[in-house]
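This entry is passed on directly below:
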Amino acid sequence: MTHVDGWARRRLLGTLPALALGPAAWLGAPQMAHAGGQLEEPLADAVRTALSSAVGDLAPPEPIFASTETRLHYLRWLGTMSDKLRKRKPDWMVRRDFLQTIWYEAKRAGLDVSLVLGLVQVESGFRKFAVSSVGARGYMQVMPFWTRVIGDGDAGKLFHMQTNLRFGCVILRHYLERERGDVFMALGRYNGSRGKSPYPNAVFAAQRNWLFPATLQATGQGAAQG
């Protein structure tokens, strides 16, 4: 069994009590996840501003492209990732909005999109309302204290798609800078297991599911602004 299979199985076990109550209860209750937890620490003003701006954004962000070539690159990526995500998110509009937002937020934070997708797979299994045993929430399993640090403390906002993805990407970028670009250590810090290998290895394994062919990556990266 791979690290990813192990993480997925533990997340599934967390949802069994809700499933036993029937579909209505399952849909109405937060879905459990078993992530670790980020630790509260001082933030640079730039990080605080980036997080604060996400709380008021309600619609999926619109990517801006420098050229037709970069737009075509993005559309090829979107089509490829959409096919891979179809089983987890059958509705096209939901799938498109999620992928558009995660692409935008990853680029905005200077992160590899495949790494962010791998992290989401491990953290929440692409479940918007996932909740871990330590209270981390949403797609990227963001700890509720972040909303208190930069906003009004309403942890429910972490179930909003763009808010959650913005927080997750900015926090991961913050940890990368703290770890001087060491992705392994930054992922451990993100999960609250700094220096231990299971979590980073699980994310790296999941990341391989979301790599875009190198021949297409060479066509350009596009731009995310805002």
Observations:
- The beta strands are 31-33, 130-132.
